[in-house]
Structure formats: structure tokens, C-alpha cells
Amino acid sequence: MRYVIIGNGVAGTTAAFTIRERERRAWITLISDESDYFISRTALMYAFMDRLERRDLEPVERKVWDRQNIECVRGRVTGIDSAGHKLTMRSGAVIPYDRLLIACGSLPNRPAWDGLAEVQDGLVNFVTLGDLDRCERLTKTGQKAVVVGGGLIGVELVECLRHHGMQVTFLVREPWYWPAALGKPEGLMISEHIRKHGVDVRMDESVKRVNVDSGGNVRGVLTDAGHEYACSLLGVAVGVHPAIEWLPDNGPRANRGVLVDTSFRTSLDTVWAAGDCAEIQFDDRPTVVEQIWYSAKRQGELAARSMLGDPIVYDPPVFYNSAKLFDIEYTTVGNFRIPDAAEFYGRIPGRDVSIRIAEYSGAVIGFNMLGSRWDHTWFERWIAERRSLEYVMEQLHLAQFDVEFGRQDLSEFRRQFAKWPRGAPAVVA
Amino acid sequence: MLSLALTVFYLVLYFTEALTPVSKALGLGSKWTLYGLLYTIAIVAGGVFVIRRYRHNRYQVVRTIVVMATQVVLAFSVPLILVFFHQPEYYFSYLWPLKLDYGTPGYLFHLPLVFVIYSIVGSMILVPLLAVFFGKRWYCSWICGCGGLANTAGEPFRHLSQKSTKAWRFEKVSIYSVLILCLLLTGLLFATYGTGNQNPGLAKFSYKFQSLYGFIVVAMLSGVIGVGAYPIGGTRVWCRYFCPMAALLGLTQKFGRFRITVKQNMCISCGLCSKYCEMGIDVRSYAQANTSFTRASCVGCGMCAEVCPRGVLRLENVMRPSPRERLIQIAPAPGIARPVSY
């Protein structure tokens, strides 16, 4: 059996190893246009900050690919012939397959700003190895940078650029940092923290025009507030979308992403899709596109099992994620999108440590924890067990994951909780 | 270059008397006192740097303060004070088998009784007992001077440790070889002591064995290569490949309570943990596979947990079965992925 996987990211690689575990003799091919071997995209920032070498970005030792007999092909797929069961490459090569997995990931969103189309150099999205090369080159030659986008990749890029001593302006379109994930007090706390690291943070401000010199180099941006910021590096981190532009007309059906059912099968026979590029359809609810590392790993494994013939019915588990925003660690679990939910927010006075727990009809549904370490599996359990906010506040210490001697004292949160007017909107600290 | 300078320094220190006049001129007496002073300065200065760098991490702060205090008090001041009061120059922070003398009857039994008792209780009871409860780290990264230098002045070199499978294979053979040599030698010295003058052949052989061990293991491996190789093989070359004490503690640790707990499904495979492990342990492979683990070589410095951007790792002394383990045993719902190991 020939298994071919388009994309050597975490979804594709996890799928390859899952197949290999079960089928010792199958032919497995991983195709990538970006890198010879699987890299940890989430570690790009540490390579940029010189805390890792390029080679350290590869989580799998190179000899493992040979030992596991997984063929790594560098190149770009341009055509899918589903009737003939083969792929055509830009080089003209043809790769036959019996079962195909599309795990080609996401592409950065490209806003419709004046001047952006004329940019030849100076623009980075900080999601690929190519971006890393550009970042390293531009940091050597330039002094000023503008980073647009109040999400995780934006703040990572800002941290790296500050590490290299650049003057950074951080433009966030929203009134506080990352409103999609954080409440207002947390967002303000984070932006204050970023300012302390010497970053010029501008909220409620978005780009109108990119200034470009005759050579196509970025020279600065003009914002809707009428401010001009000079820069030689422009970081754009305004989200990603499934990479489906390359799909040929006779490829699988796609909407936002490649459409799949709950067993990751596309509209084409013997073609599956998983990870960032997949849009999952359900019988009873709207489609879902999951675009984080953990979901890609999960989907990659399940899609592989589906390809192997296991009866898979994917039901996305409770959402969780984690991050580090400069020095502030962040753990989130569950759902904060229910407008009628009661939310308890507590903060240790004078410190960048806060918790937010949402409850809906007597059961906790979401956790947003900043500044200390937590074991998300407890939160998942409490959500599954439909525990009350009171119960969770009492048991909260079980989920603490701080270093020894560094355990966060929870009594302040419990005091604030005792005084919390139930059901009232969260108080801004 | 730095490596060469350090190596030359150690060769001069061990095998010439060039430093003796320098030490005398400073009013310090023997060259070893000068060395002790330099060593202490390195640990204190490095310690201040480490505490500043990791000030947000209480484990690192507490641990580094203990390392600095141990060096200043037990490994530098106390021996000097003892000598001043015409007592033997005794280092409370070193124990057999790291310091062979303290398990050598010919040396040990000439000490006042209190030192004899401390040495025996320390090596035979304290070392294994604490290792069962807290792992190897109580000694290797909290008390020991070799580890102390590695984790303070050696901090900028920690990521240079060899990560290859070859290094790991070598480590397994080399560290237990030194341990066996050390145990053999100790047994031999006890036998010689017990038989007294009845067997001059045995006495001569154990004397030769002891001086060879002193030259190769103590001088060359722990001193010259141990510190000289900082810029090449990272800070724990001695501790990882050769130290008999580390070998013994490591075996105890395997059966004790210490472990590194891995948070389930939170690793992003960035590899910082493996990169900054001074013992060359591939921490990332455990984190990726969601496996909590205890490795004999782990000295419990806690740096993997510090550098992890997702807070996946935690050093723990677990009571078994811990509530956390019971939690993990809950079967995942159908359709949810189980961990894959690459």
C-alpha cells in the first residue's frame, strides 16, 4: 500500500508515524515544499532569538526517517489525478498513491492595505522557515520594525525583535490585546507588560497604507489614526487561513478549507485531509476549522487511523491552548463565547497573575489563567463533570503546576471570590 | 580557546607548583587554598548571575542560594577554620564515593571520631535515603561543588552538552565503569587495612591502584577534563560520564520518588528542554509522548521546566499513586487521539 502525505507539518508527520506503527511494510511518502524534514513551527521564535540552532527545530532525529522508512520528498504538488491515483509535481515528477492525506496547513492572511502589493522586501509573517531567514537578514540591516496583529504570533515576533534591539511599534486593531482570547483586564495587563519591555504598543489603530520605496522595500506604514511609522521590517500576523489556493479544479471539494466528514474523508475517494487545512462537517452543527498545534497532532493521528480502516468519528474535545506572552504564561481551556455566562475574574494586586473562570447554568465552562502554571487536564475534567464554580474554587490547588517553592498562593483569589457578586459582569481591575 | 586556557590552568594546578608562590604571596598558604578561593568566587559570581537571570523561578533561586552557601561555608570557610584550630581539613559537602579518601580506612580512621561518624553516616545512610525521597538532585544540583560550579559559572555553557545517541551509549559504559573501579578500589583498601602488614604484595598493589585512580579519575577526569571541557561538552562532562557518586545516586533515584511529570498533550516539540539539559537527556521525546519519567542521569537542575514555554514539565517527589496519576488513568473518550510517540 502506498500512503502519500502532502505536508510534513505536525499533522502530516503524526499521520506518517501512526501509519508506520501499524503497517510495517507500507510505502510512506511525506511531501513538503518548505523543508526537507519536519520542523516545529512553534519553535521558530526560539531559533530567531538564537536560543536554538536551525537543526534543533527538527523534533525527529534525521536517521529516524531512514530507520522508519518514511520517504521525505521536497517539492510542490500541482495536480491531483484522483482517478489515476497519482500526484503531479511542479518539477514534472509523478507520485502514485493508494491513499492520500492532504495536510498542507495554513497560509497567513493578507490584508487589503494600499501599497502592500508593491512590497518586494521587508514583509514577514513569521510562520515559515523563509520568514525566519528574512527576519534574521532584516534585523541585521534595520533599526525599526512595525508589527501588526494582536494575537500570539504578533507578540512572539515583537519579543524576538526586541531581543535583537530593534525599536518596535506594535499595532493592535482591537481596543485591547487579543480580545478573541482575553478579557479586557487581562488584555490591558498584557499590553502593559509588553510596554515594560520597551515596545511602543498602539491599541485601536490599524494600517491604511504601506509605504514602499522604488525598490519595493518597506519604508513605513500610515495608520487610520493618521500616524506614520517608519520601518524597514513589517510584521503582519493577522491570522491564518487554510492553504487551499493550490487545489486543482478536479481536487476535493473545499469551502473555507478542504471539506471532510468526521472520519477526515474528503469528497474524493481515497483522499483524506487533516490539520489546519481541513474543514470538518458534522450532521448537527456548523463546520469547524481547528488551527493550532494540538488539534493538528490529534487530527493527524485520527486521519491516519481512518486511512488504515479504523471507524473514526471525530468529536473535537474541549478547546485548550497555552502560550507565553513575553514572561507571562497563559493557559486556556473551554469556552468564553457564551454571552450569558457568569465570569469570575481575580487578580493578585500588583502582580501579573490572574484567573478567569466562566460558569453557565451551574457548571464551569471555561478557564483563562495568566501568570502561573496550570494542569489543563483538571480543567477539562471539571468541565466534563459539570462542576460548580464554588467547587472548582475550592479544589483549584489540585490543578496548580507551578515550580517547587513557586506555588502561587490562592488565598487572595479565594478572598476575591468570596466577595464576588455572583452573575455580575467581570470587574475591571 | 577558553577550553584550552581552563585545561592549562588545571594542568598547572595539579602537576606543577607554579601557583604555590602566588598563593603564598597572597597569604593563603597552599595552592589548594588559592584554588578554593577562585572556585568559590566563580560560584558566587556565577550564582548572582543565575539568580538574576531566573529571578522569577523560585526553585532556581532557592537552589542557587543553597549552592552558593554550601560552597562558601562548607567547602571553603569550614575547612579553613578547622585547619586554624589544628583540626583536619574536612569538607562536609563532599562524601564517598565522590571523595574517595572519606571511604578509605587508612585516611578516614585517623580522623577524630565525629568526622568518621559523619563520613560513614553521610555516605551510607544520608546519601541513599535523601535520594529515595528527593532524587539525585539533593546532592548533584544542590550541594555538590562540581555541580555547583556547573550550575553557576557554567550556566552559559549548559546547552553544549552532547545530545547524540553515541554520547548516551558512551555514558552508560563510562559512568558505571568508574563506579565499579571505585568500589573495587575501596574494597581493596579495606582489605589492605584489615590484613595490615601481613600481605605486602596486596598493599603495594592497592597503593598503585589508588594513585592511578587519583591521577586518572580525580585529577584528569574531574578536574582537567571536567572543567576544561565546559566550552566543548557542556558543564556536566564529569558528572555525566564519570562521577561514581552520580552513578550511585542515579541508581537510587530510579527506585525513588523523584520524577519529571509531563503535562498531557501540551508539548509543542520546540526542543528547548532537550537543548538546555546539561545531562544530554532528550526531554522532548518524553514530553511529546506524554510520558512522565525518571532518568538515572537527571540531576534535577529544573532547567527543562524553566525554559519550557508551555509549562509542560514539573519536577516532583511523588507519592504513589498520586492524584495526578489517577487522573491520567481515566480513559479518553472515543474519537479522541491517544498520544503518539515519534
Secondary-structure map with pairings?
The complex is a heterodimer of chains A (429) and B (342).
Chain A: E1 2-6, H1 10-22, E2 27-32, H2 44-48, H3 62-67, E3 70-74, E4 77-81, E5 86-89, E6 94-96, E7 99-102, E8 106-108, E9 123-124, H4 129-141, E10 144-148, H5 152-163, E11 167-171, H6 184-196, E12 200-202, E13 207-212, E14 218-223, E15 228-230, E16 233-236, E17 240-242, E18 258-260, E19 271-273, E20 278-280, H7 293-307, E21 320-325, E22 328-334, E23 342-347, E24 354-360, E25 363-370, H8 376-384, H9 389-395, H10 411-418
Parallel strand pairs in A: 1-2, 1-7, 2-3, 7-19, 9-16, 10-11, 10-16, 11-12, 18-20
Antiparallel strand pairs in A: 4-5, 5-6, 8-17, 13-14, 14-15, 21-22, 22-25, 23-24, 24-25
Helix pairs in contact in A: 1-7
Chain B: H1 2-15, H2 19-25, H3 31-53, H4 58-84, H5 105-108, H6 113-134, H7 137-140, H8 145-151, H9 165-195, H10 200-228, H11 230-233, H12 237-241, H13 244-254, E1 258-262, H14 272-275, H15 283-288, H16 303-307, E2 313-317, H17 323-328
Antiparallel strand pairs in B: 1-2
Describe the structure.
The complex is a heterodimer of chains A (429) and B (342). By secondary structure, chain A is an alpha/beta fold. Chain A has helices spanning 10-22, 44-48, 62-67, 129-141, 152-163, 184-196, 293-307, 376-384, 389-395, 411-418, and strands spanning 2-6, 27-32, 70-74, 77-81, 86-89, 94-96, 99-102, 106-108, 123-124, 144-148, 167-171, 200-202, 207-212, 218-223, 228-230, 233-236, 240-242, 258-260, 271-273, 278-280, 320-325, 328-334, 342-347, 354-360, 363-370. Chain A has a five-stranded parallel sheet with strand order 3-2-1-7-19. In chain A, β11, α6 (184-196) and β12 (200-202) form a beta-alpha-beta unit. Chain B is mainly alpha-helical. In chain B, strands 1-2 form a two-stranded antiparallel ribbon. The model of chain B is unreliable at 325-341 (pLDDT under 50). Chain B contains 17 helices and two strands. In chain B, 61% of the residues lie in helices and 3% in strands. In chain B, α9 (165-195) runs antiparallel to α10. Chain B has helices at residues 2-15, 19-25, 31-53, 58-84, 105-108, 113-134, 137-140, 145-151, 165-195, 200-228, 230-233, 237-241, 244-254, 272-275, 283-288, 303-307, 323-328; strands spanning 258-262, 313-317.
